[in-house]
Amino acid sequence: MHINDFDYDLPEGLIAQHPTEQRDHSRLLVVDRKTGKTQHRHFYDVLEYLHPGDCLVLNNSRVLPARLFGVKEGTGAKVEFLLIKRLEGDVWETMVKPGKRLKPGDTVLFSQEPFLSADVLDFGEDGTRTVRFHYAQEKIKFLELLEELGAMPLPPYIERESETVDKARYQTVYNDAEKEGSVAAPTAGLHFTEELLKAAEEKGIRIARVTLHVGIGTFRPVKCEIIEEHKMHFEEYEIDEVNAAIINETKAAGGRIIAVGTTSTRTLESASDEAGVVKAGTGSTGIFIYPGYRFKVVDSLITNFHLPKSTLLMLISALYDREKILAVYKEAVKEEYRFFSYGDAMIII
User: Would you place residue 333 in the very low, low, confident or very high pLDDT band (cuts 50, 70, 90)?
Assistant: First the structure.
């Protein structure tokens, strides 16, 4: 398939720059695969489309405040770091802007009080740098320093600086502090409130939690014209025994698995066998889902609206139908839905 098969026209003004005032007050476009019909609702209506015995699967990864701003020692040149992945201890893979300013042996100072600096150790792939952070380890943990000094890693299409509100709103309400490791939010989950999740459980809908740490690759474009030649980035995932059992029991009883987001979808499809049984454990997945893929676990999907020519748009086209999905997107544009991370939502049932 050609990359242009997944293109569509999007007015720039529909790219959401801020979250809605209340999480569940975003709009919801309901897509019925059996009838082909659509409905225009709000996210607080989503439970009308879920049934007792269904299972919502949430990605509980927590977003790191992974942007750090510092100066290069010796020159005072301003530098921005984006933490991508912890390699070991205080050694991290990072993206650097502007990259040409830093080479192995350079030091960047981020803060004197509390103290935080980093030494550049080596060049990585795609212009990244391997760095070692230095701080008063006996007084504070590195992740606590990030919470104080770091900014949220908003996507490049949000054309503003990170604000105080983003530290709360660019996280799901169900993230797990012990599962910190994403550099982008699993954005479909941003619409849920604690009250909505409680109402789901009261309705008899089971809730399972999985972890997939969203990597920087989620923002990288597909560069191959023939999509089958594209190589996905790898991301780490984890499903424990309790949550694997919830998912498998739901399937066995005839309930539907509703994945909240493409990250939950990729986790479930990576961690299951050919019979659709989800295996507990940890792993690294580079699964690439595009039309022609046969879903083993996921029945329905709650998701945001995705970038043209993106692997995420290809994934939802695999769940439904490429031409019909593009028609739905055209309708969403006409109805002036808000797009991308802070935008509105869709449920494909």
Answer: very high
Alpha carbon of 64 to those of 38, 97, 103: distances in Å?
36, 18, 25
| Residue environment code for 90-122, b if the CB has 16+ CB neighbours within 10 A, otherwise e | eebbbbbeeeeebeeebbbbbeeeeebbbbbbe
Asked if 40 and 29 touch (Cβ cutoff 8 Å), the reply is yes
- Cα 203 to chain centroid, rounded: 27
Domains of the chain: 3-63+168-348 (3.40.1780.10), 68-150 (2.40.10.240)
Entry pTM? 0.93
Q: Give DSSP secondary structure letters for 198-209.
A: HHHHHTT-EEEE
Cite the DSSP H helix spans in the chain.
142-149, 166-169, 194-202, 241-252, 262-270, 311-319, 322-334
> From CA 89, how far away is CA 139, in angstroms rounded?
16
Which residues have a Cβ under 8 Å from the Cβ of 218 and sit 6 or more positions away?
184, 233, 312
Residue 191: CB atoms within 10 A of its CB come to: 28
